[in-house]
Design a protein that fits this description.
The structure is a homodimer of 269-residue chains. The first copy, chain A, has 269 residues and is of the alpha/beta class. Chain A has eleven helices and ten strands. The longest helix of chain A has 17 residues.
């Protein structure tokens, strides 16, 4: 079991993790994916560590039912707080989005001043700070939580005056610190990239942690001889804890057309 | 059991229901209250009917452990979608916030054009429309969901340019319909009342459904001879599903100082 032709498991607090799925589909097009989105309990980023860890444990247990060969924690908040506990409890390789994002940012920065935006939980965890410190202790990290970014994206207000003002308000303290690299530490934030770009100007590099993670997944699978050798087309399955209808509608905005079935799951009942 | 000296049970998706508790404490100062806030799964207003009903059933079951003599559904979203199911399953009197808000609005309107703002779920349920129709079929109701209002309140941005622009954007269609009364159909929205007032001007009456509900509770208790005759000071208990610390901090903003213990609950485990 957990052989090379088993699927990759991906979980997220909701829909945003589909940006990670998209990167996986592009970079590892032969791999099958089982996605789990906890849309009934979303968001995680406003909640406490103990709740985030508990929900994350339940999500991994659900994915393991499908014999997944590895688990990708697409959610920055879960990656920030739950990764050590998940790795302690489960033997399957578990890949988060923090280290990939941190690695890309450390590679890109020239003045060694990196900004991080994320949910309140992600920023409070200081997970990006720790990951960057481990890679290059001379880098300075400046963090800012942006609780209105996710609601803005979900409302579809990703451009226009209100969006620009909210983005400018949150990013001002980071700009004052003269960051030259900004980690988008939440799956929803890449959908604000155009407005963020307009606010910070062309000189700041933007890092999409989710996009960077596909490389880590490839590395982990290759290192464990777990890359698929299947000749058949990959099969994807999507599970959500709230009704699938809404997932379809918003999912299309993240992923283009969803290439797989969407089912309802009750992992914690 | 469920005698006159038992406590009143109140539940909400999170913290906002404390505005209803405040109104109860003012209007029924001898009554003890058991409050349940589902802070680990908040918000409900972005979720589907089946999830809202399921969570609401679990919340009532939790409160019944305390022998409550009635249940107040402080959450507009739960009141909108779950009330009929709750009343079918439980014998204890259950009071929602929709009818009290609708009654007050019908009493206040002069031009019979009432606006309703609420979460997406509340607006989609058309519960306020139905309640108003039952009271006065000649009234026209215009609804608008305002998904950014709750995040704005939780971020503390209840005044200033961004808040005013968001409020103006959402309320514009209602103003075009020449409403003279506006129901604030979500427990968080009264915290935006000052900005809403500035946007709509002095001629529009604002109705806080939660505040109106205390009158209904008194009526139901009196009608069932369930008003307390206890001579002792009331005792309040607060339960939340996420960590209590955050509840304390934000709770103080809603209620002044919390007059009771806050404990963590796991009703659905």
């Amino acid at each position: 079991m957990n052989g090379a032709n088993q699927p990759i498991g991906v979980f997220d607090s909701g829909i945003g993790g589909l940006t990670v799925v998209k990167a996986l589909m592009t970079n590892l097009p032969r791999e099958s994916i089982v996605y789990f989105g906890d849309t009934a309990r979303v968001p995680y980023g406003t909640k406490s560590k103990s709740t985030i860890v508990k929900f994350s444990l339940e999500n991994v247990e659900f994915l393991l039912r499908f014999g997944v060969k590895c688990i990708v924690v697409a959610c920055n908040t879960s990656s920030s707080w739950a990764l050590p506990t998940l790795r302690k409890f489960f033997k399957v390789p578990i890949i988060g989005v923090i280290r990939p994002g941190a690695t890309a940012a450390v590679r890109l920065t020239r003045n060694k001043r990196i900004g991080v935006v994320g949910t309140r939980a992600t920023v409070n965890s200081r997970a990006y700070d720790a990951a960057i410190m481990r890679l290059d202790p001379s880098v300075k990290v400046f963090s800012q939580c942006c609780p209105l970014f996710v609601p803005l994206v979900e409302e579809g207000w990703t451009e226009g005056d209100i969006c620009r003002e909210v983005v400018a308000t949150y990013l001002k303290p980071l700009q004052k610190q003269r960051i030259d690299t900004l980690i988008l530490g939440c799956t929803h934030y890449p959908l604000l990239a155009r407005t963020i770009r307009r606010v910070v100007g062309p000189s700041v590099s933007l890092v999409d942690s989710g996009e960077q993670t596909a490389g880590d997944v490839r590395g982990v699978l290759a290192g464990n001889e777990l890359l698929t050798n299947g000749k058949k087309n990959p099969k994807h399955r999507f599970f959500v804890t709230d009704e699938p209808a809404h997932f379809h509608k918003v999912g299309d905005r993240f992923l283009g057309k969803l290439a797989g079935s969407v089912e309802r799951a009750h992992p914690y009942l």
